[in-house]
Design goal:
With 245 residues, the chain is an alpha/beta fold. It is 42% helix and 16% strand. Pfam families: adh_short_C2.
Amino acid sequence: MRLEDKVTIVTGSTSGMGLVEAEVLAKEGAKVVVVGRNEKALKEVTETIIKNGGEAIGIRADITTAAGVQELFDKVMSTYGRVDVLVNNAGVFDKYTKLLDTSDELWDSIFTINLKSIYWLTKLVLPQMIERQSGAIVNIASVAGLVAGKGGASYTASKHAVIGLTKHMSSEYARFGIKINAICPGTIVTPLIADSVDNIPKDLVPTRCFGQPEEVADLCVFLASDEAKFMNGSIIPIDGGYTIQ
């Protein structure tokens, strides 16, 4: 197992890509901390992982506040005493809202979850990784962080910021044995878009097909594992070739 005994936090892991990431990371031996707001969903995901032979705990957390993120971190440390891998997966979309239609409230809510939650949680996790000279952080960005057109103003700006933060952190902390990389998914078929995916033109993508959550999860495993020890500050599209056009 590539991640045996690695204590791994996955934010936003009760549905969509995050759920699959948690399940796949657990199959590779990680001790997964499932993070979300819905108690029922947390229970279901953790029970499924355990039933399938993995190890997981569920923590209900509000990552839209610094206090909520601190509480999450404290609970993980009291349970395991360390964090080996952090997958900053939680994110929200702005429904392609253009700049002139974007309210201050929408802008703030998008940036709070998509960027500030990463800022808060990573600041807490990094010191103990630096002390141990080991760790991996995987930020889930988006192709909207590479090009315009895959999101509205606030979403596009927030994902560009995630990529910038990833590069900064890698340049500062790679010397301490910490891998920090970002994944930029294109259109991934999750329950959120399953009903409407047939209405999305496949000819927008060179492969003429869309991605599956398992593909993103497998990339998470690789970046968190020792196999990726020479990868740092990498910004990796997984988009069927969308961004090469």
